[in-house]
Amino acid sequence: MITKFKEIWGKTDDIILRYPMVLTTALIAAISSVVAIEIDHQDNQFLVTKLAFAGCLGISLMFGIKMLSQRIGKSFLLEILGAAFLVWFYFYLPNSEKQFTEVNGFVIFALVILSHLFVSFSGFLNKKPELNFWQFNKNLFINIFLTGVFTGVLVLGVVLAILAVDKLFDFNFNNNLYPKTILFLAISGSTFIFLIFNDKGIFQLEKDGSYPQILKFFTQFVLIPLLLIYVTILYFYAGKILINWELPRGWVSYLILIYSVVGILALLLVHPLKEESAKSWVKVFSKIFYYTLIPLLVLLFVAIFTRILEYGYTEPRYFVLLLAIWLTTVVFYFIFYKKATIKFVPISLFIFGVFALIFPYVNAFSTAKRSQKTELQQILTKNQLLEKGKINFEKAIQDSVAIEIANKFQFLNERKQQAFLLNFIPKTHLSKFKKILEKERYMVNSEIRISFKNTLKSKENKDYQYNYQGVFSSKRNYDIQNYEKLFVFSNIDIQNEEQLNDYKLKTKPIKDGYIFSGYIINLESPTKVTQSYDLTPFLKKQLEKDNADQLSTPLEEISTEFDLHQYHFKVYFSEIINNKVNKKDNISVRDMVILVKKK
């Protein structure tokens, strides 16, 4: 037993010395995640969450750098560059959750993908044999799976142990202990387990090994047959389009991309088997797969450009188009290049991803901004809404046009194009929109729609007319006399929390997936006793005042009052919307202002 313990401890010591930067970033991510749960103040919580994001990104980045340094040396220099990149990433992210936009989300998602792609080829930029590259990634794939299993058992075991102690011995642990334990072990624990599996790094991972029988069976008899069924369905759909001579539906592009990416993954998994004569099934699929993609690529580009020509570029459409171009490059590379190597797949995708993020003028974000600016100008011109370059909000327009303009304003404001947007705003609305565009970005969409006084329901849009309800109040001056505290929540699609003296005030949406059916206000006392007020009945009652002939019905004031513990509350809303999904309520509100005083 002592010998076994010494063996494990010796290996642990070896892992710490071999992968210090990987473990450091994992520890930073784990501790930051735990601290973020404990912090009450929203802005401080987000600063710590940023650190967790940077740490999580650093795990894969530093592991890739370690693989590269094991091949070429210069470990210290490469790790310094990696750390500098993570510091840049931390300061790139905004300082508060209110400033966080979907653009930041796209960047985070793209960098996570790129960092994992970097791991796959970082140690193989030289002319190492292709089989070594395949063995390295095959072993990584297996180790990731094993890490998931071991981490799941570890987390479940520890959480159940804490739960048993809590319930059996009446310790009454804080409920936050469970998510904190799960996050800490899931991040730091999984990283350490993964490194133990990879032990000596690239030299161990690239060694020859037998082809795993379970992987062989899964790929040959499950994955490839499913892909053949899938491509048959796509070909029948393509035939339907040709027969009916109709444009393809937008989501078909995602189906084609899924088939293509999964198909390429399947080919990578069976790469060593494709030359074995006994594996004719694999050999045939390897030869025909890229040819089956050619007609689908035509369908893919038609579907993509149908959306782009109608609505312009957005970041998701840009990335889908870029993936289509990359896929086309891969197809023709493997069809026409005699000495094709599978290393081309991750390396080329990495290059395309970097291009999309940083290439001047034509990167995803610059392209989307230019495109949506052009789209907005065209909509305003087409509907004759511009008078001396300013929007005429008094002109009668269809509600669908108002919604489209509002969506463009929201999109561009999220991308810091306030100066461009303010050029279209007349003087009578300028001061209001300056404040909204700069400080209350969640209200941009509703304020644009509200500003159009004469909007009519689109006759052809019956579903929208039936499903939509909306009321708004233009009141912005609130009587705060005799009230002690004022809280403003601009985004209440998430749970918000503020300190009210010794009490905790929380606004909590009632939701099922992405559907919001109402809202609750909780007030937790210092003794952990919580009293709640359900705003949902009040919100529904206000929505009953909706006028079907208007996009949103104006009301003089939208407010309600109630008591919780020793406090009296008055809550104002600027807008309430019920955009039903399959006849189910989907209620959203804008700009909740809460006034509080002691009873």
Automatic annotation (TrEMBL):
The chain crosses the membrane at residues 21-39, 45-64, 76-93, 105-125, 140-165, 177-197, 217-238, 250-268, 288-306, 318-337, 344-362. The keyword Transmembrane applies. It comes from the Bacteria. Keywords: Membrane, Transmembrane, Transmembrane helix. Signal peptide: none annotated. The keyword Ribosomal protein does not apply. This is DUF4153 domain-containing protein.
